Each structure stands twice: as structure tokens, then as C-alpha cells.
Amino acid sequence: MTLAISGTTRLFAIVAHPAHHVRTPQAMNARFAAAGLDAVMVACDVAPEDLAGFVSGLRGVRNFGGLVVTVPHKSAMAALCDRLSPRAEAAGAVNVLRREADGTLSGDLLDGEGFVAGLEAAGHAIAGRRICLVGAGGAASAIALALAARGPARITLLNRSPDKLTALAQRLSAHRPDVGIGIGGPVSGHDLVVNATSLGLRPDDPLPVDVDAVDAGAVVADVVMDPERTELLIRAAARGLIAHPGRAMLEGQLSEMFAFLTRA
Ligand SMILES: NC(=O)c1ccc[n+]([C@@H]2O[C@H](COP(=O)([O-])OP(=O)(O)OC[C@H]3O[C@@H](n4cnc5c(N)ncnc54)[C@H](OP(=O)(O)O)[C@@H]3O)[C@@H](O)[C@H]2O)c1
User: What pathway or pathways are given for this protein in its record (predicted)?
Assistant: First the structure.
């Protein structure tokens, strides 16, 4: 089924800067068409200094349905929403917002939910598992919150910059005081090791963890999608560990985003 844009079509957008590389419109438009929805998603390249004006203008667009929000706008957009989900509030970031029937804007953060959905779709459980999460940026924060909500045995956080590491640990503990959070230490002793840094994007990047120190039988997951088989995943698979690619997180997110944006 193809999209037929008319005077009744609901408008959705992904806002990014730059925007030429985004793939979400293609994937979301295919889902709109498959569901028979009168809706379209386009990409909007908006510079940070124009973001507030962009959102203010959209508030007056009656057939505007919502936004997917990506780099570099996730934190700034949180301040422009009328309400935030608890996880978006905790992370201080959104990656989707929806225009409600009364014209107000609700923001949520689905990166972490997408990561969890991708893990679960591949049959990897989270409850009761010992997790090592590397990174303390936007993706790592969202993933940490989503993993903590699924009852892991504990989460060990590692990151290059100690200030961001401590800040994430504090946010996570405040949001989920029931989950044991550790800072630093060896990568061994974990069932699931997650690279949520950008290490692996460039061919000369060092590995985010020492793969040889990961326990036998562990799952090694990456958020990096390009290349699809990162050096971390190649080394993990070579050792007989279970390698879980970054693409699974994107696929998980698309379903979560579609459900959020099209919820009546
Ligand atoms: N698969 C998906 O659907 C999906 C979704 C969202 C994001 N991602 C990917 O997730 C990655 C991180 O994105 P983000 O939004 O979290 O970025 P971010 O907020 O900028 O955080 C980057 C993280 O990587 C670490 N890092 C960067 N360069 C490093 C280096 N040379 N050595 C050690 N650590 C380094 C940073 O450590 P410091 O704190 O020390 O700076 C920080 O923890 C990106 O590759 C992005 O493409 C994938």
C-alpha cells in the first residue's frame, strides 16, 4: 500500500541536525501504510538555535501528530514539552513527543525500551541477570533506566568520564532504589555486557571492554549500528559469546515509537 497525502493527512516529523542520514521516515511511513493510516513522516533539519521556534510553530498546526527527536535535540526538547514520562524526567531527555487532543505536547524516552524490546525479541532475559553497562551518555542513560525496570540482579556502570558515571549512578539509584548499582570494576562476573558508548563507530576505535575478560556464555550487546558487525561483536562471536547487534535496538524502537505516536 502506498501513501496518499491529502488535506486530512496527519503530519509527523523526525527533527535532527543534520538530517540527511536519518532512516526513520522510510521505516515509519512503511508502518503507517501497512496500518492503513492517513499519516506521513518527513525529516526536518533544525539547528539548535531554531528548535524552540520550530516547536512553538508546530503547536498551532492542528493536523500535527508528533515528533521523533534525535541528535542533538534530545535534552533541549525535554524542556519544550508540557509533560514528560517518569523515565524522560529522570533522564532529562526525550526522543518522541506527541500532540494530545488538547494541543499539549507529551514527551517520552523510548531508546531504552527499544533496546530492551530488541533483547527480548532475541530471547535474552533481563530479570535476575548481572549486567555491565558501558557508557553514561544519552543512550546509556535510557538503557540503564529500561534495564533497571526489568528486575536485574545488579547493574555495574563503567564510563570514561567519572563525573558522568557518578551522575548516572545517582540518577539511576534515585529512580530505582530497589536495584543494586555498582560503579567501575572488572567486566567479568556479568551475564550481559552492553556497549552504550559510541566506541566502534570508527575503525580505529579501541574496544569498549576487554572481550577476553567477559564470562563464557555471556551476551555481548552493542548499540552501535554502523558498522553492523562492530569489532566488539566480531571478537565476542569469535570467543563463542552471544553477539547482539545495535540494529535490534532500532527495530525495537520503531515499534515503540509507532505505538506512542499513533495512540489515540
Ligand atoms: N541502535 C540504536 O538504535 C541507537 C540509538 C541511540 C544511540 N545509538 C548509538 O549510541 C551511541 C552513543 O550515543 P549517545 O547518544 O549516548 O552519545 P553521547 O550522549 O554523546 O554519549 C557518548 C558515550 O560514549 C563515550 N565515549 C565516546 N567516545 C569515547 C572514547 N573515545 N573512549 C571512551 N568512551 C567514549 C562517552 O564517554 P564520556 O562520558 O567519557 O564522554 C559517553 O559515555 C552512538 O554510537 C549512537 O549512534 C544507537
Answer: Metabolic intermediate biosynthesis; chorismate biosynthesis; chorismate from D-erythrose 4-phosphate and phosphoenolpyruvate: step 4/7
